[in-house]
Amino acid sequence: MGHRGEKAPPPPPPPLLLLALFASCLGRVVKVPKGPLVRVEGTEVVIPCNVSQYDGPSEQNFDWEFSTNPVEDSKYVHIVSSWDPWFTSREYEDRVNNKEITLRRNSNDAVELVIMNIHSADEGMYRCTTPSTDAVFQGNYNAEVEVKVIADGLRVSGSKARSTSTWNLSEGEAFHLRCSASTNSSEHTHLHVSWEFKNGLAWQEILSLTHEGKFQPGLEYNERFISGDVRLDAMANDIYRLSVSQALPTDEGAYRCRVSEWVKGADGTWQKIQEKTADVVNVVVQPTALGVFITGSNVTVTERDSLDLTCNITTDRSGIFQAEITWYFSESPDGTVADAQVLLSADRDSVISDSTLISLSHVDRTSYHLLVRDVDIGDSGYYFCQAALWVPQHNGSWYKVAERTSVPVTVEVLALEPIYHVFLNASKTPKFSEDPTELECRITEAKNTEANIRFTVSWYYRLPLRSDEVAKDELLAAMDADWTLVVGERSKQRAQNGEIIFSKPAVDTFRLRIQWASEADKGDYYCVISSWSRQRNNSWIKIKDVASMPVSILWSTQDYALTVEAVKLKPFFMAGHTFEMTCKVSSQNIKTPRYSVLITAEKPLNDQSSLNGTTRIISLNQDSVVRREDWTDQDRVDGVVLEKVQENEFRYRMYQTQVSDAGLYRCMVTAWSPGGGGMWREAVNGLSNPIQIDFQTSGPVFNVSVHSDSPTVYREEMVNLICIITVEGTVLDPDDMSFDVSWFATRSVAVDRYPVFLASLDRKGIVIQARRNGSSDVSLERIAPLEFRLRIHGSEDQDFGNHYCVVTPWVQSAAGIWQREMELKSKPILVTVKMDVLNAFKFPLLIGIGLATIIGLLSCLIGYCTSRWCCKKEVQETRRERRRLMSMEMD
């Protein structure tokens, strides 16, 4: 075992580290504060020590020693160590064990020696030593500092002019606090005196006289210190007086004096060596009492009279003060000062704000009179006054000591109501729908209607209901006070179109006119006349509403009737001839009707047993405008005609009829009656009897089917599908037959899914293909007179599904006219696409084997290079420490 502090010598540093060490001038540096350190007996002493420019571990250890006579090195006594628990000498063991002396580490290279209660015997020299961890012994390994212990000579006491510990002061009263502070220290020390205040949990600084002789106010007392309201005076007999010229409610709390003693260190900086406090007094500030009330409670005045209110104040304040009065008005009893309207105010110099109809007079020191002349309805509400007391300060400024607001008083202004009646009559009533209707609302027997009274009207509609139901009123239109018309939802659109007109033909008359009455206008109507009074600010306030008796608008009506008859002009015709039929219309209870006609057809399905959906062919509206609807036969663009023969008779013609035109034909007629604004209103609809077109023919019968030799293929292979047409019955020349062929696919095994169009070939040889998302492609060609082949090139998974063809035959008659037969649909055939597993994995497998081979060869090359050049063992010579051995624990 080695001696304490010894350790095995470290390995020699590399050349670059040696150059860095040689470049350093001092090597290891241990520092303590520059002494002597002057401390007061019984206080805490903290001596810091740090080390820099060292080698070895980042965390350094420290030893502290003490000597009363530092001349002889043997006189040092061990105090405490940061790494050796047996380092402490016997005379310090109790103080170290009791934590009276501790070693506090701040960082890896800095510690503090803390002596809690220093004695006079602790005066002497303190040495801080750091064990060596350096490769080269260079620099200093210890540092010393002298500590001087002086006796406690600081005396602090609080003195007050009154014997009680609590002072009761009135708001605005001045008060003075005293603190006695002195010292008889043997050293040259300075005192720092601070006055502090607490009204809660924490103490806050009021004003201080620092050890450098400067005044330093607290943050919240800076303005009061600048204005001279708070002052600190150094008086005779070591007295420090705090003076406050105006006591505020916020000054209520506890006051104390805090004194600290400072000494200038060897480095020229000031150090605080001790601090003491003395409680002085508790201050209670009584706020200024102020009462504000208005004479009277609820006040009622008549419109155009004057309102008289008085604001009274009471206070216990004596001496010089000035009152500031402000009158407020609010429409709500709970209104605050911020939300209320300021009427008038008188400041502390009795300067009154200007107003024409409102005046404010100062009756005496505590009474303020408010007079409002020529009141109106808008003056009804709540009035209250606010008073503030101001007192002068010693620097000539004024300070507000109190502010109160009175309880609001209710003021009701009674209006001079006009007296009038309202009469409503119907000047025009409808006898039929679309007739005009006119209502007049008049004011009668009006009294007290002065020049400042204005009348407006509101129109209402009430739907007539049974006696046990509650009638619901709907607003048609209403006028604002400025005669702006606001139209209700029921009549907004019709008023914009000019169908409903609201007017005012005279001062006392209002009119409602409906240009074209409809069934929805039947019901009860009434009007409400509102009277408005002009206020002083030129605004209008509603005084009264008077409603008229309701007037019923009703007329007898009969249900519309419409009859439509279709007649086939030719009883029998053949394909290629012209089909013609007429539609005759008769109506009842419709005023000057016009008709629109639509020709529809119901085509039979392929199995001839049921009818397909209704097809809209051609229409003619009430203004005789013809429009082709769903007629899409490009070869017969002008093949259908619809014309108006008479006012109630229409004729339909279809030229060059074909077998595919077979079906039931009807006339769908709509009767229109004239509506408002030149518009037409739909009255009633009617449907005629059906007229059948049926071709009795013994022509050929076509059938269609789909065939494929190999409907199951692998990906990238080609699919061949053949659409085969067979003819039964009459034998035709191939030149007399032509076909439209379309191919469709359903991307599912189920055939009821929505089909996807693939390609088509019409009878003129034009091929149309659908846009495709994948890489596969399709081609369509005619390989025989009755066979059409569809090819799918480079098939993919998305080509899976049921495929079928749709064929429309065309047959040329003996007259040379081409007739279109019924559309035919084949049964579907399922096409499946498989994946070639061997081809799918062939190329990925070859690539994987190649990559594995390359990675293996690269790994062998890296291993060889590493073992050849990078794994040599370097042996370095162990270097011993020059000065002394180190402990094994430090290795």
Automatic annotation (TrEMBL):
Signal peptide region: 1-27
CC terms in the record's Gene Ontology section: membrane
Membrane topology: Single-pass membrane protein
This protein's UniProt keywords: Disulfide bond, Immunoglobulin domain, Membrane, Repeat, Signal, Transmembrane, Transmembrane helix
Location in or out of the cell: Membrane
Domain of life of the organism encoding this protein: Eukaryota
InterPro entries recorded: Ig-like_dom (IPR007110), Ig-like_dom_sf (IPR036179), Ig-like_fold (IPR013783), Ig_sub (IPR003599), Ig_V-set (IPR013106), IgSF_V-set/TM_domain (IPR051102)
Gene3D superfamilies documented for this protein: Immunoglobulins
Membrane-traversing stretches: 843-864
Major localization class: membrane
Domain Ig-like as annotated: residue spans: 14-148, 171-274, 287-387, 418-539, 700-823
Protein name according to UniProt: Ig-like domain-containing protein
Organism listed in the record: Phrynocephalus forsythii
